[in-house]
Amino acid sequence: MKKFSYSEAWEFMCGLQKYGIKLGLDQTRQLFNLAGNPHDKLKFIHLAGSNGKGSCGAMLNAALRQAGFKTGFYSSPHLVNPRERFRIDGKAISEEEFAELVSDLSGCVEQMQAAGSCPTFFEFTTAMAVLCFARNKVDFVIWETGMGGRYDSTNVITPVCSVITGIALDHQQFLGETIEEIAVEKAGIIKPGKPVFTGMLPAAAMHVMRETANTEAALLTTLPDLQTEKLRYSKAGGRLVQVFNYDGCEIKLGLSGAMQRSNFRLVYNVLKFLSRKFGFELSEALNGLSAAVWPGRCQLAAGRVLIDGAHNPDGISALLETLKELPLPEKMPVIFGSFKDKETLQCLELLSTVASRFVFMPLKTDFRESWNGQELCRLANENLPKLTVDYATGPTDALQKTAADESVLICGSLYLAGEFLQELLPAHEILDI
User: Fold this and answer.
1) What pTM, to 2 d.p., does this model score?
2) Which residue did the predictor score with more confidence, 420 or 18?
3) pLDDT per residue over 176-233, tens digit each?
4) pLDDT confidence of 89, banded at 50, 70, 90?
5) Which CATH number fits domain 6-225: 3.40.1190.10, 3.30.470.10, 3.30.565.10, 2.60.40.10?
6) Which part of the chain has CATH 3.40.1190.10?
7) What SS3 string covers the chain?
8) What pLDDT is attached to residue 432?
9) In the chain, which residues fall in CATH 3.90.190.20?
10) Which of 73-77, 98-102, 172-176, 229-233 is the most confident on average?
11) Domain 299-431, CATH number (from 3.60.20.10, 3.30.390.50, 3.40.50.2000, 3.90.190.20)
12) pLDDT tens figures, 5-18
């Protein structure tokens, strides 16, 4: 068996990126089987959705830890360090554990290659996650899909329950051109007889969920009409915490904005189910929500830079609603970067309502094509000529161009959020949540 160092392990994984994105479950099942099927020992809460998976996962992670459980949390993409994808009780795994997992699974990859196949990068990280969580004997796994659901590598498991956070047009080249088609892919994580919980979904998507749940004899729980009340904000540990009343409880939530209150209502339903099934106090779990953190989601850095990973019109709209509640100027410069397969122009139109000007920049990736700054300037000038635009070569340049401004907004991609978090925050604030 090979024994990789951390850098060697990451290099090995990067070599799998050449296999691209491959929707389907056969290779993941094969890899899990070669690894000894570690997922059979675990209790999964499976999350899918166009937006909100990470935030809901962070809330569930904080609440279940508060209730006394050991948690594993698998998410993607990573913002700064690949170890973020694998968290035990909120902490990214160590370099030593990361290297050990890759070393142990590399032999399985070699067996697959000898048989004429090879896992993709995401299939490999999914196998790493189940092996990691089984070895750490976690009580619950918060299990986030990468893309879609039905043919997503994460869908080889049988969960305790499934959670569909929200559905919007995203990844159309893989998931379909309409809300209905995308909903069918997300609904693929609904399993026979296992409860499913949904957030705020378009009517067409909700119809798909009801039909699928009925076919699979899965109890479907949607958001009730009950709303959050008496909203106010307080500060705790240098962070903004929103406080509100819900279902007779005072809730303190460490994530900002109206969309997070909507996500909370979904999480509340999930926790209510889990507390009854596994015998813990719901009220105690809810006390953990004040500590919920999810890097790159409406995160304030350096006192004036608001960083958010919103990357599609639905996410941008939610971000704009959040901005109305926060003590920020009505207009501010927006630093923006985006992949070319996103609805970039619509995102810019929405952001133009809060942007005093735009500073465009490329994303630092080599596996998907992003706009560079000059291209975004041309796109804006041709379609939104009233916008004031500029471009930067990278985070340092963009921050220098906005150094005199009271507040700055950064959005357009989780990869962009990661670049600025790395620039502005110490690593432990991203690796530990």
Assistant:
1) 0.89
2) 420
3) 568 888 899 899 999 999 999 999 999 999 999 999 999 999 999 999 989 999 999 8
4) very high
5) 3.40.1190.10
6) 6-225
7) CCCCCHHHHHHHHHHHHHHCCCCCCHHHHHHHHHCCCHHHHCCEEEEECCCCHHHHHHHHHHHHHHCCCCEEEECCCCCCCHHHHEEECCEECCHHHHHHHHHHHHHHHHHHHHCCCCCCHHHHHHHHHHHHHHHCCCCEEEEECCCCCCCCHHHHCCCCEEEECCCCCCCHHHHCCCHHHHHHHHHHHCCCCCCEEECCCCHHHHHHHHHHHHHCCCCEECCCCCCCEEEEEEEECCEEEEEEEECCEEEEECCCCHHHHHHHHHHHHHHHHHHHHHCCCHHHHHHHHHHCCCCCCCEEECCCEEECCCCCHHHHHHHHHHHHHCCCCCCEEEEECCECCCCHHHHHHHHCCCEEEEEECCCCCCCCCECCHHHHHHHHHHHCCCCCEEECCCHHHHHHHCCCCCCEEEECCHHHHHHHHHHHCCCHHHHEC
8) 84
9) 299-431
10) 98-102
11) 3.90.190.20
12) 999 999 999 999 77
